[in-house]
Amino acid sequence: MGEATIRDVARRAEVSVASVSRALNGLNNVRGETRERIMAAAKELGYVPHAGARSLSLARAHAIGVVLPDLHGEFFSECVRGMDREASRRGYLLLLSNMHDDSEQAAVALRAMRGRVDGLLVMAPHIPLEALERALPATLPAVLINAPGEIASRPALRLDNRAGARAMVEHLLGGGHRHIVHIAGPEGNVDAQERAQGFRDALAELAPDMPVRIISGDFNEEAGEAAAREIVASSAPCDAVFAANDMMAIGCLHTLRQAGKRVPEDIAVAGFDDVPLARYLALTTIEVRIAEIGARAVSRLIDMLEGKGADTRTELHEPQLIARATTAARVNGAAHG
Amino acid sequence: MGEATIRDVARRAEVSVASVSRALNGLNNVRGETRERIMAAAKELGYVPHAGARSLSLARAHAIGVVLPDLHGEFFSECVRGMDREASRRGYLLLLSNMHDDSEQAAVALRAMRGRVDGLLVMAPHIPLEALERALPATLPAVLINAPGEIASRPALRLDNRAGARAMVEHLLGGGHRHIVHIAGPEGNVDAQERAQGFRDALAELAPDMPVRIISGDFNEEAGEAAAREIVASSAPCDAVFAANDMMAIGCLHTLRQAGKRVPEDIAVAGFDDVPLARYLALTTIEVRIAEIGARAVSRLIDMLEGKGADTRTELHEPQLIARATTAARVNGAAHG
DNA sequence: TTGTACGCGTTATCAT
DNA sequence: ATGATAACGCGTACAA
């Protein structure tokens, strides 16, 4: 009682399954009249090829597996949107699977893809490199996105977190801010690590006299709120906060204002990601064009699958600073102390 | 040179493929010693079953197809997140496909799923019912989400847009607002239609003396801005705006304030969806728990697939009003005029 | 307990 | 131009 198969079509058109396959796939070695009879039979039966059987026979699924961590809302959807756009443009479907924080589960998720997809897109800023390498089926093409390092012969895309952090430090120093505090992301996350390191390096180079102050966080709003309370309570000078992502910046912003601090007059606040909220709150941030990165990852993977160049280099994507009101330049020089 | 197959494992363990299959699938009719030899061989070869072949043999793919329209960011990701949570909990993968505005493309997207998934989740508030029905493979189980009507024997979930709109009208009237303008969503979209109709009906019942005023929009921020300009320019009284979604409400809010209107003192503003932005802008809105709806849709589909009751009823999800500052009650009675 | 052989729905090879 | 048939990798009757 299932769907009609190629055999049903063959029977109805009174030809062999081979001819049906040829006709339906547009091969030219089939007589016009025969072709028409086949097409008619197919239409009458509402025949649709069985993609599973097809991919078994062709050894190509025309699907690519996408394994993402638990991303903050807008980031996730934009990433998938970018991927889907490019994938559907090139005739591929996306098989989705969330990889939670656990390395074990990540391996399971990756194995589940075997035999259903032609290649993998893996974003894993929080999985140790060796674990990732081990979990990745050796023969399955894969493109890494923001992995915590490079794996030989695996093409990869990376966001240039360091450059973003550096740009922000330059921007803040240029605005007359001197005592910049960084709110870091989760420890195991490469993006967080690189942003923190970029902050450290930029400060060491551009303002070597300033002490480097970093408060730990976890990318959630609450961490930003906690950091704000710590900053307000502390006697250490602080005239600017650079959070490792927008959500923490936003939490910080709110709490600072509630505590009576004026932003940016007393303390400037900046984030990273440029989530839609950032624009509405006039939050200075680093724009990460995640949809573009996703689309590009798909494109590289498909190029690989179709033999159009197996470029195995790591591609660095430069983020861009978006200056808004929360980091307006200081007007006087009363920054010290 | 591909991955190891079940045959390779059989050869290495010196047994038949049947025994390998049995051992790997945990059947009990295999001797302990044999099983261990098989397990060892599988591990040594890094064998992972080929899901494609498996599903062809079992006639079950353990995957479900998700066909969504081009959703606004957060809405999309939350929906997919909810679906993925439930799907992975029950051992299914999600095959994603965006269905753009075109009915033709929708049909193509649906057909591409044949032979790869066990069932379909379709959200199509913008596709005419007949087109949707025609495009849906007759024998493939499917759960409809916010479809523009009901299809016999197809289980469905719906957001109760009318109830949401009515709750908002009650809230606004209760706050002393009298001249409420509705900014509608795109014409072909059921959610938009139902919200507008709910607005009309509620007003007709609760404030029959008030004229019903509706400005057309398209769910985008710009439409809200345009509506705001129209409201400001018009001589018709207006002390409250109820937009069919948050993004339009937000656009409206900004433009009204830029035009010197105080919100909510001069004009109250409300939206629909409760996107994260809404909370930060203190926008009154209707909370739509889309992740929950997505998870529930998956759950119903899998129940169906596994024979645990083929409940074909339409399930109505009640949204909830979230009152925030943009619709604070009027303090005096100077509303008329 | 174990093995042989067939079927799942296609495509591709090799005849004719 | 067309047809018979062997793959593709797996599960599972059925036989032993």
From TrEMBL, chains A, B:
Keyword field: DNA-binding, Repressor, Transcription, Transcription regulation
InterPro entries per UniProt: HTH_LacI (IPR000843), LacI/GalR-like_sensor (IPR046335), Lambda_DNA-bd_dom_sf (IPR010982), Peripla_BP_I (IPR028082)
Residue ranges occupied by any HTH lacI-type domain in the UniProt entry: 4-58
GO molecular function, a single term: transcription cis-regulatory region binding
Record-linked Gene3D superfamilies: 3.40.50.2300, lambda repressor-like DNA-binding domains
Pfam families: LacI (PF00356), Peripla_BP_3 (PF13377)
Name of this protein: LacI family transcriptional regulator
Originating organism: Sphingomonas psychrotolerans
Lineage, top ranks: Bacteria, Pseudomonadati, Pseudomonadota, Alphaproteobacteria, Sphingomonadales
